[in-house]
Amino acid sequence: MPLFDAYRSEACACRTVNEFNRLHIDYEAWLSPSEFEELARGIHACAPTMPPASMIWARGLGELIARSGNPVRAWDRRPVYQDAVWYAPGDGAPPRRERTLVVCYTDFFGRLFMPIPAYLQHCPAPGHDYLVLRDRSRRYFVEGLADVAPTLTSALRAVLGAIDAHKFRRIQSVGASSGGFAALWSAVEFGFSSGVSLGGAAPSTLERSGLSADGFREALRAHPVPPLAYYYSADYPTDRANAAELAALMPVVTVPIAGASKHNLVFEIYQRGELVEFLAGVHAIPPRATRYAAPDAAT
Does residue 292 fall inside a structural domain? Predict the structure, then answer.
């Protein structure tokens, strides 16, 4: 079990809570659901010799995955660059020309509001592939990917070219939190079938961080706007303000999730046991305003 052996070596070298947290955040940013299942089996089988933090992590993430109600999915994980990983469906999937590629922009922790294996386990399959991007610089992807290219558009163009993305039936972009703005921008810039932000930033957010959103405004002037959606917690003021700013700037369906009060709307819906249904709407083309929306959803 090479995966377990590598993990055990790293876990046994950890000495502090912070070291364990960093280790697990890193693994959660790239494992597929089936790889996590393999790793968890090894951890549980060697429980007497494993650090307690490993046991807690394996149980917790295992519960996140199990609650989807789906059999654990065997994605074919294909690293494209250090911070670009392609998850292709396993055996029995339709041919690529019939599938949708979802370009996923992660948050500051390399997640989509939850660990990647848990998110993938709740997502539509097998007609979708997921290209997961991570911006370790925490610059909202505006400065591209460190090992690829220095701008959002040049980095994405390189990654899409590396996997022959033109062979897919259609492409959608989805981003969570700090990745949400890049999802909307790239959908417009590249003419994707749709773009979705889950509680993402607005141009003013970037500008307060010393970044420019001018490229996004230029894209809006230069290209037709595809179906765009912004999902957010109805009772979270920052994201409510971001939704209003984006709606004043371009055509976008804003979807305030009723009863949700935290920035991480994905986990709030997960706690209700409704994440599979919710993500089916998010990944539909065009995205669907769900039954969870507050009455003022239409924009």
Answer: no
